[in-house]
């Protein structure tokens, strides 16, 4: 269960009020599916969303439950306490864990972890300036598997008006990558691309996330999943080069060598190993889907 969250690249949201979408989302190719109790659910439907998810999860296999997270309502909202009680029931059935929105303090994460039990993984969603300031505390809280970035809410909280390329958010994204690295977590998860009919925009956003050190991205439509994987999964040329780097260093006895006119040393080898690890995970995803 832990590895399913830590190794995941794609995280697909599904409204919990539409439980019939869960099997489809789990079959979409997404690594992790997030059943949403927060933004996708109107206030009058919160109780119905909890009940619907509890019923739907009971019909899933153990392997499907291990790929399912639920996004809670935020601490301080009228629904948080009831969400924690329902989360405890879901976690007892093998749910992977919870996405914690508007995360700003370790005590909130501790309360969620206590409700979910020791086997559940938490993904704090940093959506405010206060959350960014607490990134190190969030990253080191018990049972936290990944950090995630809610860039839309962050812009509102910070009073920002970002251009389409979101260059204004580059320092924030880097801060989350560094916080995850300091805590020894898997690389963080970047925010959604709201334009579901623009695969080119999704591809650009995904490429930027990968280059900046993110390990995946949140999705709001199944069609975005394949575009995301295409950006993050290394192609055949990258895999072939990584294998040649490994072979060249082995033949050099582990020392510095030259490959195609370029120096190959320990950092280059580390990058090659990272490429091969991403390739192995992509192959595992394909094997699971078939």
Architecture overview:
The chain is an alpha/beta fold and 290 residues long. Helix content is 51%, strand content 13%. It contains 14 helices and ten strands. The chain has helices at residues 2-6, 21-26, 46-58, 62-65, 80-92, 106-116, 129-133, 135-139, 151-158, 170-183, 199-212, 223-232, 236-251, 266-289, and strands at residues 10-15, 32-36, 68-71, 97-100, 121-126, 148-149, 189-190, 216-219, 257-259, 262-264. An eight-stranded parallel sheet has the order 6-5-4-3-2-1-8-7. Strands 9-10 form a two-stranded antiparallel ribbon. α3 (46-58) runs parallel beside α5, α5 packs across α6 (106-116) and α13 (236-251) packs across α14. It starts with a helix and ends with a helix.
The geometry reads as globular
Rg (CA only): 20 Å
> Which percent range fits the helix content?
40-55%
Supply the number of helical segments.
14
Major sheet size, sense and barrel closure:
8 strands, parallel
In percent, how much strand structure appears in the residues? Answer: 5-15%
Uncertain residue segments: none
**Mean pLDDT figure:** 94
Order the strands across the largest sheet as they lie in space: 6-5-4-3-2-1-8-7
Structural class: alpha/beta
Strand tally, please?
A: 10
Q: Distance between the terminal alpha carbons, to the nearest Å? A: 20 Å
Secondary-structure element sequence? Answer: HEHEHHEHEHEHHEHHEHEHHEEH
Short description:
Helices cover 51% and strands 13% of the residues.
Secondary structure elements and pairings:
Elements lengths: L1 H5 L3 E6 L5 H6 L5 E5 L9 H13 L3 H4 L2 E4 L8 H13 L4 E4 L5 H11 L4 E6 L2 H5 L1 H5 L8 E2 L1 H8 L11 H14 L5 E2 L8 H14 L3 E4 L3 H10 L3 H16 L5 E3 L2 E3 L1 H24 L1
Parallel strand pairs: 1-2, 1-8, 2-3, 3-4, 4-5, 5-6, 7-8
Antiparallel strand pairs: 9-10
């Amino acid at each position: 269960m832990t590895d399913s969250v830590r190794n995941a690249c794609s995280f697909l949201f599904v409204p919990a009020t539409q439980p019939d979408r869960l099997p489809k989302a789990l079959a979409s190719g997404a690594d992790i599916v997030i059943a949403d109790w927060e933004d996708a659910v109107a206030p009058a439907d919160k109780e119905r969303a909890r009940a619907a998810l509890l019923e739907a999860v009971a019909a899933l296999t153990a392997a499907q439950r291990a790929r399912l997270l639920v996004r809670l309502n935020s601490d301080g909202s009228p629904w948080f306490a009831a969400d924690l009680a329902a989360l405890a029931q879901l976690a007892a059935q093998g749910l992977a864990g919870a996405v914690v929105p508007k995360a700003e303090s370790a005590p909130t994460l501790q309360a969620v972890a206590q409700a979910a039990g020791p086997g559940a993984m938490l993904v704090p969603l940093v959506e405010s300036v206060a959350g960014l300031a607490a990134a190190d505390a969030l990253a080191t809280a018990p049972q936290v598997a990944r950090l995630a970035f809610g860039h839309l809410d962050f812009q509102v909280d910070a009073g920002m008006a970002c251009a389409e390329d979101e260059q204004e958010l580059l320092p924030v994204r880097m801060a989350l990558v560094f916080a995850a690295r300091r805590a020894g977590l898997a690389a963080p998860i970047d925010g959604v691309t709201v334009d579901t009919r623009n695969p080119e925009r999704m591809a650009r956003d995904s490429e930027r996330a990968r280059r900046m050190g993110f390990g995946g991205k949140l999705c709001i439509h199944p069609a975005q999943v394949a575009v995301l994987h295409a950006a993050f999964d290394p192609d055949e040329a990258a895999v072939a080069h990584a294998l040649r780097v490994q072979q060249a260093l082995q033949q050099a006895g582990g020392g510095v060598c030259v490959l195609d006119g370029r120096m190959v040393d320990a950092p280059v080898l580390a990058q090659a190993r990272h490429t091969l690890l991403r390739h192995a995970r992509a192959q595992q995803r394909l094997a699971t889907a078939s």
